[in-house]
Design a protein that fits this description.
Blueprint (H helix, E strand, L loop, with lengths): L1 H17 L6 H13 L7 E5 L1 H4 L4 H4 L5 E5 L5 H6 L1 H5 L6 E5 L2 H6 L5 H18 L4 E5 L11 H16 L4 E4 L26 H11 L5
Helix pairs in contact: 8-9
Keywords: Signal
Pfam family, one: Lipase_GDSL_2
Protein name: GDSL-type esterase/lipase family protein
C-alpha cells in the first residue's frame, strides 16, 4: 500500500511541476517547431516583439521582395524578450532585426516609469549586439493604442529616450510610426484599430509598411 501511495505522490508531483512552465514557454516551443519543420533562411529580416507582430500573420505579403521571419508573441514585454533572448536569437542568422515591444510593459504596470522600459530595451539591444555586432537593428516606436490612452505619457517619454539612444548606436534606427497613424489634427486614428482599440486593421499595417520600407535591408 505504501508503494502505491508513494508512486501516486511521485506522479502527482511530476504532473504538478510539468505544468509550471514560464510564461510564453509554449510560444517559444512553437517557434522551435516551426524552425524544425522549415529551417529558417539566412540573411532574412527577423521581427521580434509582441502582438502587433504576432497578428501580422501576412507580413510577407506586405514586403514581397523581402525574406521575413516573424517571431512576435502576443502579450510579451521587453522582460520576456530578455528572458528568451537566446531562443529568439540563436537559431537565426539575420541581416536585420526589427523590434516592436514595450507597450505591454506599461500595460502590465500602469505606474511603471519610462526609464525602466528604456533600460529593459537597452538590455535586449546589448544581447543582440553580443551575438550580431554588425547587422542592422531597428526599433518601431510604441504605438498610441486608444485603449491605453492613460499610458501615453510614459510611452511618449520612452519613445523619445529610445530614439535618442538608437541615434547614437551604429547601424541602428528608430522607426517612428506615430505621425502616419494620426489624422490631420494630430489625433490617433481610431479607424486603424479593430474593436478592442489595441490591435490594428490591415490599413494600419499598410501604413506601417509605408514607413518601414525605407529601413528594410
Amino acid at each position: 500500500m505504501k508503494k502505491i501511495f508513494s508512486a501516486f505522490l511521485l506522479l502527482t508531483f511530476a504532473l504538478f511541476f510539468s505544468q509550471e512552465k514560464p510564461m510564453f514557454w509554449q510560444d517559444i516551443q512553437h517557434f522551435k517547431q516551426l524552425d524544425r519543420e522549415n529551417p529558417p533562411a539566412k540573411n532574412a529580416i527577423l521581427l521580434v516583439g509582441s502582438s502587433s507582430f504576432t497578428k501580422w500573420t501576412d507580413v510577407a505579403s506586405y514586403f514581397p521582395d523581402k525574406t521575413i521571419i516573424n517571431r512576435g508573441f502576443g502579450g510579451s514585454r521587453l522582460t520576456d524578450l530578455n528572458y528568451y533572448a537566446n531562443d529568439l536569437l540563436n537559431p537565426y542568422q539575420p541581416k536585420q532585426i526589427i523590434i516592436y515591444c514595450g507597450e505591454n510593459d506599461f500595460a502590465d504596470n500602469a505606474q511603471l516609469k519610462a526609464d525602466v522600459v528604456v533600460d529593459r530595451f537597452k538590455t535586449f539591444y546589448k544581447k543582440i549586439r553580443a551575438k550580431f555586432p554588425n547587422i542592422e537593428v531597428d526599433y518601431i516606436s510604441i504605438k498610441y493604442s486608444p485603449s491605453r490612452e492613460n499610458l501615453w505619457p510614459q510611452m511618449k517619454e520612452a519613445n523619445k529616450k529610445i530614439a535618442a539612444f538608437m541615434k547614437k548606436q551604429p547601424r541602428s534606427k528608430f522607426i517612428d510610426i506615430t505621425k502616419v497613424m494620426q489624422d490631420g489634427q494630430g489625433n490617433v486614428r481610431k479607424d486603424l484599430f479593430v474593436e478592442d482599440m489595441l490591435h490594428m486593421t490591415p490599413e494600419g499595417y499598410r501604413l506601417w509598411t509605408s514607413v518601414m520600407k525605407p529601413y528594410m535591408k
